[in-house]
Amino acid sequence: MAPEEFRNAILQKGAVFLPNRADPGLLDKIHRELNRLFASYPDLSDEQLAVSDPSTREQIDLSHVSERTFSTFAGFSYYEVLRQSGLWEMVQKALPETQPEESPFCHSRRVATPDRKEFFSWVIDYHVDAQFHWAHQLNINFWTPLVACGKAAPGISVIPIGLERSKGYLEFNPTGRYEFEHQEFNQSKFRVSKMRTEILSEQGLLASAWSPEFEMGDVLAFSNFTMHCTYYRPEMTEPRTSVELRVELPGFPI
C-alpha cells in the first residue's frame, strides 16, 4: 500500500486492513515471551508482588502487559513489529506534517471465553481510544493478533467511518462539556452513550461494522477516533492474544 492510500484510508474510512504485513516469526517470539512472563507469576505470593511490582500485578489482573514491562522482561520492544515491517516508515511518509512517536499506552491483551479465567479479560464494548488518552491529537493503533482470530478466537470489530464523521456522530467537544455522562479520562468530551449497540443499530452504523478474520502477520490500523470493540460469537472457544501498537502523531490537527 502506498503512503497516500494509507493516509486516505485512516482519515476517510477510519481503518485499513494490512494483510501479511508483520513477521509471523517475530509475533510468535512475542507470544512466547508473554507466556513465559505469565508463567513466572503463580509462584510469587501477593505480598511479594505488592512489594516488587504492583503495576505488573495489576496488568496481570487486567490481562494487559505494557510495553515498558514487556521490553524490560523480554529485552526487546513490541515496536519492533512496526519497524521491521516498514509500517513505521510508512506513517512517516503518509503523514509528513508530524513525526510519529511511541506511545506509553502500548500493550498486549488476552481475551478468552467466560470459562477460561486464568490471566484473561473479557470482551470490550464499542469505544474510541480517544475516550481514554490523547483526545487532543491523532493517534493510530496498529492492532495485530498473536494467533489466528476472528473465527475460532475472538477478534476485533470496527465501524469504518472517517475522522470527521466519527467526531460529528459522537459530538466531540474538546472542552469536555458532557459532565452528566462520564468523568473519567476524556469521556466527558464525547457522547459515549451513542456507542451503545442499540443506538448504533438505530443510527444504521452497526450494519456497517467490519470484523475481519486474521492470520498471524495481518495488521488492522485505525485511528483513536474509530469506534471498535471485541468481536465475539458464542461458537468462539479459543483464547486470543493481541498487541496494540499505538503511534502518537503530535501536532496533527484533528
Separation, N- and C-terminal Cα atoms: 24 Å
Class by alpha and beta content: alpha+beta
Q: Could you say how many structural domains there are in total?
A: 1
Taken from the alpha-carbon principal axes, the silhouette is: globular
- Please write the string of helix (H) and strand (E) elements: HEHHHEHHHEEEEHHEEE
Q: Which residues sit in consecutive blocks of at least 5 with pLDDT less than 50?
A: none
Specify the oligomeric state: single chain
Q: The biggest beta sheet, please?
A: 7 strands, antiparallel
Per DSSP, what share of the residues sits in E-state strands of 2 or more residues? 15-25%
CATH architecture: Sandwich
Task: Assign the CATH class.
Answer: Mainly Beta
DSSP, total strands: 9
Number of helices: 9
Q: In the CATH hierarchy, what is the superfamily?
A: q2cbj1_9rhob like domain
- Range of helix content: 25-40%
C-alpha Rg (nearest Å): 18 Å
CATH fold category name? Jelly Rolls
Mean pLDDT over the full residue set? 86
